[in-house]
Amino acid sequence: NIFPGIGHTLQLVSAMITDHKIMFISSNYSTLLSAASAALSLIYPLTVRHYVFVPVLPNCLLAVVGSPTPYVTGIHVSSHNFILQEGFVGQTVIVDIDSGTLKIPQDIELEIPELPVSFRKYLTQCLKLILDPKYLLSDLAFAPTPRTISPPNVQDKEIRAVFMQFFSWMLAQYRCCLVVVRSHPKPVIVFNDKRFLEIRSFQNEQIVLRLFETMAFCNFIEDYGPPYRVSTLFDELARGCSVDPPRCCPNQDQRLPTETRELAQRLLENEACMGSVRPTKGPPENIDEVKFPRLREYRVSELLEGYGINLQSRKPSITMEPHCTEAKSIIKDRALPGEVLPYRTAKKEKSTDCDSALIPLL
Q: Is the pLDDT of residue 157 over 60?
């Protein structure tokens, strides 16, 4: 039955955006990775940078699930009994992927608020239409032919588009409640939650009140609050989104709303553009690059021997004063035998000799 799965998905989204601990259980490791990544994509534009995100938790780190901080993790079904015996999952929402069940402990069941009623109905109906349209027509005496289910890649974008519309509607007009605090050396952007609740009449929506207290919403304000940044697809949705709750389409109309289909198409095009850009294999080949020639060992030895003879036969150009005994000894230690040169003169003469010695090597 697809309906319990939709209800569990909405409860999971509500738990994630209110900073609860989430644990996925499955007998397949690849399923754990896919489920954890899909759960994070459903709550876009909210991010969980403060979460401990471990899609596949190894057995040596099972004690992490007892952490008091929120996390999203996945464990193999063979380790589930050990975790239950140790009592690590007292306040953790457990998602059993193999059986399709969602377990919420009683002590946190009241702390996970439900989504707004108007949008919960809209989400449920749209998800039914995307996943299996025949459920919308089961109560009709003369039911039309169900619409064809979209391919998996398009179906994925349609689901993400529905949840993006939910968050754009819930956070619409958030920019008019941003306040710039200039009492610090660097201006800080804060969110006036009281003004937002008055504008949107969300005083009784517990999920909105809980959302404002989470780190996910603080990350959202940090990312989307500053002006003069690159505009994203969510910015376009929030800018043109109406504050009125969405209306449910009738059961006879088996088409998704036009805005949802267009948004899913844009998500699909963005993914196609990102997939076409791939890094080149290996370092780039520069045709005009000049390779440094190899040095000949015998020629290097000959030049070094001749260079040493020339330096020994050279007369000292400057003599040191007798009373400068300490400086004289230091300079003599660094100079060649039989000559005393100032530092600058020796450095300049040395570089000139090196240049003249390297030219015949090539």
A: yes
Task: Say yes or no to pLDDT of 66 above 70.
Answer: yes
Check if the beta carbon of residue 164 is closer than 8 Å to that of residue 265. no
The answer to whether the CB of 32 falls within 8 A of the CB of 74 is yes
Please state which of the ranges 189-203, 244-258, 280-294, 303-317 shows the lowest mean pLDDT: 280-294
46 CB-contact burial (10 Å; exposed 0-12 / middle 13-18 / buried 19+)? buried
Looking at residue 24, its pLDDT comes to 92
- Sheet holding 21-26: strands in order across? 52-54, 71-76, 21-26, 92-96, 101-103
pLDDT at 3 (0 to 100): 45
Three-class DSSP labels, the chain: CHHHHHHHHHHHHHHHCCCCEEEEEECCHHHHHHHHHHHHHHCCCCCCCCCEEECCCCHHHHHHHHCCCCEEEEEEHHHHHHHHHHCCCCCEEEEECCCCEEECCHHHHCCCCCCCHHHHHHHHHHHHHHHCHHHHHCCCCCCCCCCCCCCHHHHHHHHHHHHHHHHHHHCCCCHHHEEEECCCCCCEEEECHHHHHHHHCCCCCHHHHHHCCCHHHHHHHHHHCCCCCCCCHHHHHHHHCCCCCCCCCCCCCCCCCHHHHHHHHHHHHHHHHHHHCCCCCCCCCCCCCCCCCCCCHHHHHHHHHHHHHHHHHCCCCCCCCCCCHHHHHHHHHHCCCCCCCCHHHHHHHHHHHHHHHHHHHC
Per the model's pLDDT, the better-predicted residue between 279 and 209 turns out to be 209
Amino acid at 156: D
**9 in the Ramachandran plot: left (φ > 0), alpha (ψ -120 to 50) or beta?**
alpha
Q: How confident is the model over 100-115, as a mean pLDDT?
A: 83
pLDDT digits 0-9 by tens, 300-354? 788 878 776 565 555 555 555 554 444 444 444 445 555 555 544 444 444 445 4
